[in-house]
Amino acid sequence: MTQNIKGFSKLSKEEKVDWIVETYFSTPETAKGIVSQYWNSNESLQKLHDEFIENTITNFYLPYGVAPNFIINNKSYTVPMAIEESSVVAAASKAAKFWGERGGFKATVINTEKIGQVHFLFNGSSEKLQSFFNAIKPKFFTETENFTKNMQKRGGGILDIELRNKTEELDNYFQLHATFNTKDSMGANFINTCLEQFAKTLENEAQDFLDFTENEKNVQIIMSILSNYVPNCVVRAEVSCPVSQMSEDASIDAKEFAEKFVNAVKIAEIEPYRAVTHNKGIMNGVDAVVLATGNDFRAVEAGIHAYASKTGQYRSLSHAKIEDDIFTFWIEIPLALGTIGGLTSLHPLVKFSLEMLGNPSAEDLMKIVAVTGLAQNFAAVRSLTTTGIQQGHMKMHINNILNQHKASKEEKVQVMEYFKNATISHSLVVDYLEGLRK
Question: Catalytic residue among 50, 85, 301, 411, which?
Answer without folding.
Answer: 85
